Amino acid sequence: MTCITVVNTYKKEAETLCCLINDFLQKKGHRCIRADFSGADAPFPVSEYDCVITLGGDGTVLYASRRCAESGKPVLPVNLGKFGFIAGIQPENWQSALEDFFAGKIPLVERSLIKAEVMRSAVKKTVYEGTALNDVVLSASQAAKTVQVEAGTADAAFGIFKADAVIAATSTGSTAYSAAAGGPIVDPALDALILNTVSAFSLSNRPLVLPCDAELIITVLPSRSEGCILSFDGQVHIPVETGDTIRIKKAERKVSLAGCDSSVFYSALRSKLRWSGGPRA
Q: Mind telling me the catalytic residues?
């Protein structure tokens, strides 16, 4: 079996853990290939592999998930982050988790990604396509500026939104940027598409939870900002122009994650949000 170990270069402990894991895998007769992650959306060093082990926080998992979705290969996320909801394997348990994985005993869960397609009216064609596990965010290319969009689906118009940013999030991404902007927390097992805004100019703007088969259509309207940026999981950034139409829907393929079942999700919620049942809950 060929395993890619993705090392977050900002995590010092990831270097040490990578050596331990690679030694363990080689003794088991597996081939080990290292891939560094420093925030850039770089391709994996090989195209043929059987699984990916991430050593970092949720950001490292997001990167690996976008890369693995097309191949269908599973991701085993070892959590070295501080505020993560996805990575469920704790660093002290990596060996038992790997042994369970190779024995077929560790649960694999599928998480949906969303796909965004940018249509440019000036040339009447698609200029970019990308996927995200957490969210796709439209924001101004300059700080402290706003964007203005018209949003809706093929069946219904929602209206015009003016805000610092517009977020389209998956259920997995409901605990990320969308939650920070006051969006709902959605169980990852429930396929949904969340539309949310950041610092909207109208108090009537509220987060919307759409069914997983909905296609969100966002048209970029003129504003005082010079240009906008479309971000995928906060890691891939592309420029968009006034008049561009962004179509966002559930991606055809899902990603398989090891050790990330609902018990891990709710344990993270209790810990991170201090659901103690007392005054701090």
A: 58
Amino acid identity at 6: V
- Cα atoms in the Cβ-side hemisphere of radius 13 Å centred on 105: 6
In this structure, the answer to whether residues 81 and 146 fall within a common structural domain is: no
Report pTM: 0.94
Side-chain-side CA neighbours of residue 166 (13 Å): 27
Measured CA to CA, the distance from residue 260 to residue 65 in angstroms comes to 13
pLDDT(281) > 50: no
Same domain, 78 and 176: no
What is the predicted pLDDT for the residue at 227? 86
7: tokens are 């090392």
Give the C-alpha separation, 145 to 229, whole Å: 12
Cα distances (Å, whole numbers) of residue 145 to 2, 182, 192 = 47, 20, 29
Task: Using alpha carbons, select from 32, 35, 25 the residue that is nearest to residue 55.
Answer: 35
Indicate the burial class of 12 (C-beta count within 10 angstroms; 0-12, 13-18, 19 or more). Answer: exposed
Cα–Cα distances in Å, from 138 out to 118, 151, 171, 233, 244? 11, 12, 18, 11, 12
Distances (CA, A) of 24 to 5, 15, 76, 183: 12, 14, 15, 42
Q: Which domain holds residue 146?
A: 113-252
Hey, what long-range contacts does 184-190 have (CB within 8 A, 24 or more apart)?
184/209, 185/269, 187/262, 187/265, 188/109, 188/111, 188/262, 188/265, 189/109, 189/262
Is the same domain home to 102 and 136?
no
- CB of 225 closer than 8 Å to CB of 141: yes
pLDDT digits (tens, 9 = 90+) for 39-58: 999 999 999 999 999 999 99
Is position 279 within any domain? no
In degrees, rounded to 5, the angle at the alpha carbon of residue 209 between the alpha carbons of residues 207 and 214 is 130
CATH number at residue 92: 3.40.50.10330
